């Protein structure tokens, strides 16, 4: 079980430090699944900032199930994220899939995301431990809590103590109605076991935008420190994960509800 105080992870963003931690206000991360083009990422950044998000998320390298699906725009998407951060003042969170891209990803992002499919890529985790940017470690889709905490330990043991854990749903037997089963019990369980901050991703956790608000509020009630929510200016036209993406208007409505149930940073 956990010994000592909850960790506070301080992330420098263009508009000052944002702190993730048990005793800190809720930090909301929002943005599209993929960075598709300049216009959509700038527009999304502007909207989610106005609604109260502190970080813009968006994939440049996408770990798609099919090799024929859109794979992300790579380096040019990283440049668009940098531009969106500059224009909006939001911090950036984006995924690194391959350690060969680590340097260029670390150059633009404020927090480096490790996706579900790479949670046990131990050589990548060791490299992330040997650099300074905070790491967002998503739970593997079939990972136990123990697997997940040990994956985090690889980063910590390699020298980087700034790790945020993100529950994004585990494999479900009911693919008909939800994409994954969002394990909200992970929140109190992790609280017992670790000092690390806890983020919940109800977008990948459910797969459907209409379920995101309920699960976001449930996650707050269960004590999460942060939320990651997919937002797209035109979800039906999204190149990835449109079905689970909120419109900017729906996101704004949700943020107003979250303000009632939580202190949002
Ligand atoms: C994502 O955040 O866009 C993503 C691919 O998530 P996950 O690794 O949880 O599937
Ligand atoms: Mn996605």
From TrEMBL:
User: Start and end of every DAHP synthetase I/KDSA domain?
Assistant: 14-257
- State any single GO MF term: aldehyde-lyase activity
Q: Name one GO biological process term.
A: aromatic amino acid family biosynthetic process
Q: Which UniProt keywords apply?
A: Transferase
Q: What class of enzyme is it?
A: transferase
Q: Which domain of life is it from?
A: Bacteria
Q: Does the keyword Cytoplasm apply?
A: no
Q: What is its EC number?
A: 2.5.1.54
Q: What protein does this entry describe?
A: 2-keto-3-deoxy-D-arabino-heptulosonate-7-phosphate synthase I beta
Taxonomic classification: Bacteria, Bacillati, Cyanobacteriota, Cyanophyceae, Nostocales
Q: Which residues of the full protein are shown?
A: 77 to 341 of 344
């Amino acid at each position: 079980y956990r010994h000592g105080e909850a960790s506070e992870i301080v992330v420098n963003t263009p508009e000052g430090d944002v702190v993730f931690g048990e005793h800190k206000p809720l930090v909301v991360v929002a943005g599209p699944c993929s960075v598709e083009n300049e216009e959509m990422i700038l527009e999304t950044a502007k909207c989610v900032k106005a609604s109260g998000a502190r970080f813009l998320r968006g994939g440049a390298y996408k770990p798609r199930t099919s090799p024929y699906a859109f794979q992300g725009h790579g380096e040019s998407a990283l440049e668009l994220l940098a531009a969106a951060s500059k224009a909006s003042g939001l911090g950036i969170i984006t995924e690194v899939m391959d350690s060969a891209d680590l340097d260029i990803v670390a150059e633009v992002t404020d927090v480096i995301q490790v996706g579900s499919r790479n949670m046990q890529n131990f050589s990548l985790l060791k490299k992330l431990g040997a650099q300074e940017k905070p790491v967002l470690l998503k739970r593997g889709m079939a990972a136990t809590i123990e697997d997940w905490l040990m994956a985090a330990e690889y980063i910590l043991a390699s020298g980087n103590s700034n790790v945020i854990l993100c529950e994004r749903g585990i494999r479900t037997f009911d693919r008909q109605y939800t994409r994954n089963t969002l394990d909200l019990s992970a929140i109190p369980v992790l609280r017992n076991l670790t000092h690390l901050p806890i983020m919940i991703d109800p977008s990948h956790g459910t797969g459907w935008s209409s379920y995101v608000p309920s699960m976001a509020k449930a996650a707050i009630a269960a004590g999460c420190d942060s939320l990651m929510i997919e937002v797209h200016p035109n979800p039906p036209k999204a190149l990835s994960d449109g079905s689970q993406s909120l419109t900017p208007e729906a996101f704004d409505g949700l943020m107003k509800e979250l303000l009632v149930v939580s202190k949002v940073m």
